[in-house]
Amino acid sequence: MTIRPTAARSSEDAATAAHGGDAEAVAKALGIDPAGICDLSASLNPVAPNVADVVRLHADRIFRYPEPTAATSVLAGAIGVEPERLVLTNGGSEAIALGAQLHPVGWVEDPEFSLYRRHLHLLEPGAPRWRSNPSNPFGVLAQPTEQAQVWDEAFYPLATGRWTRGDDSAWRLGSLTKVWSCPGLRLGYLIAPDPQAAADARAVQPEWSVNALALAVVEPLLAVTDLEDWAVEIARRRGMLVDEMRARGLGVVDTQANWVLVRGSGWRQRLLKHRVLVRDCTSFGLPELARVAVPDDAGLERLLTAIDACAR
Description:
By secondary structure, the chain is α/β, with parallel strands linked by helices. It folds into two domains: 11-47 and 227-311, Aspartate Aminotransferase, domain 1, CATH 3.90.1150.10; 51-223, Type I PLP-dependent aspartate aminotransferase-like (Major domain) (Aspartate Aminotransferase, domain 2, 3-Layer(aba) Sandwich). The protein is built from twelve helices and 13 strands. The strands form three sheets. The chain has a seven-stranded mixed sheet, with helices on both faces. The chain has a four-stranded antiparallel sheet with strand order 9-10-13-12, covered by helices on one side. A hairpin with an 8-residue loop joins strand 12 (279-280) and strand 13 (289-293). Helix 3 (69-79) packs parallel to helix 9 (212-223). The protein is globular. Residues 1-12 have low confidence and may be disordered.
């Protein structure tokens, strides 16, 4: 089975498209300012530090070519792996693309994140398995006995308070975009099974793939990162979100991740009328579900107000 790229969507259908993280396209389709949209379609860290303040302190880095050695070393130390096995990437999406370029034949058990299928050249039963942990979209952590050759741990730190499950012989992919809530900065990583595999990934990675601003913020943001506290706070906020939504009669599926699922079709369209954007799960083959990121305080108020307005 050959995987072909998804066709580009028009601005006309952007407001009802199934993909998350598309607030800019939705705002353009609706003719409004993107700042007016409460974007809960991309599941980011609702208690992350203000990355923009850190970026401003390092704005002069744009005058130099990127050099990833120092950032790679400090992140590897935080995660607990050898720097020779860690490759910083232009977001988690590049980590997926690099892994698929090195191992183009794989297996994906749906429902799963669509980028695996997009980048793998061939899907074949029995080939190396790609798996998100916690699973996307159901948000369930893998059992200790479950195995995969490629683990996507983009949401694992926010679900568990730890950087990685520690599958040392597998490829592990991560997303600092999710951890620090900075999707526009593009910052991810892959952990290879051994130094040679990491060297192979660097050999096919475009030169200067990770920009200098992104590299500059790694060390200062790690200094204020507290995964354990963040995971506890996210779980508390998720519980509050579930309680509020169930009190309003919604069918909510709780998760172990930084989002919840809501039963019922059309939630994306209904909430968008009130400038709240959620992720329609049709692209996962689950049109009866919507994925809603755990919001910050302001986002929770806007979401509940929108739900109440929909009920009226």
